[in-house]
Amino acid sequence: MLEDVSLRTLLIDEWKEYRLSEHRIVVNDKGTRYKLIMRGSEPIAIVSLRYKLLPNEEALKVADEVAYEVGAVKFNEFRGKWFNSADDYVLYNKKQTQMHALYAFDDPVAIANNDTVQLGFSIHNSIDGTLGFGAGIFTFRHACKNMFLLGYRGYSMNFDDRITLQYIYHRHTKGLVIAKQAMKNILHLLIKNGVQIIKRYRDMTNTVAKEQAIKKIVDKLPQRAIDRIMPYYDKENKRLLEEVTEWQVFNDLTGYIWHNNKASIETKINQMRIVEKELVITH
Question: Exposed/middle/buried for 60, CB within 10 Å: 0-12, 13-18, 19+?
Fold first, then answer.
């Protein structure tokens, strides 16, 4: 025989300026491990209590400030070459729960003798658990309204040099840094590294990685993950099993670092600095 169930919610947090609130779900007077996210009177999602809500407006506010500080423009204001112009620099899904925003630098960056590309950065976020917080730095030659996913979890397009050079990604868990200054620091670091990487990009794709540089990086990463990340490296004998480029090693390592949701943002940044020191900055 089915028994009646008492179901209610308990307000635990809210962002009044964005009409967002979080309510713990209580069943038969016992708090569950889940909470309900509301926007006004509209239910948005049921997520774990560990889920850390970051309003899209907060992420966008930080990115706007960083763009101003580094001299970037909102993507729809880019004054370079376009294929199809964009009406806005922010793209939302139909439910207005996912957000993607793009920014670009008007001045091109040299990558070879007379060859240049454009540089841009992006942020990505959601309030319903469908996307983690992400940011990326990318290159392109012609702007286009179909580029809004560039920078998200390494997404690139095999066209027009639309390449994500570096990105961060973190689920909405306790490791996600919500503090405004911390988020700004992350974006500034991405942009700084992106400029360094783009200056070295062509060289890295044609330069064989050095064992000594890889050894220094591997020694400071979780050893249990090395075989999966770098099957071409023998961690026991500390030697390369095959010839690989610096670009491949860079992508393999950064892919692991930014996808590791067990690590905090601070840990990821520290690990990235090690990678960049050996593969990018010292050259």
Answer: middle
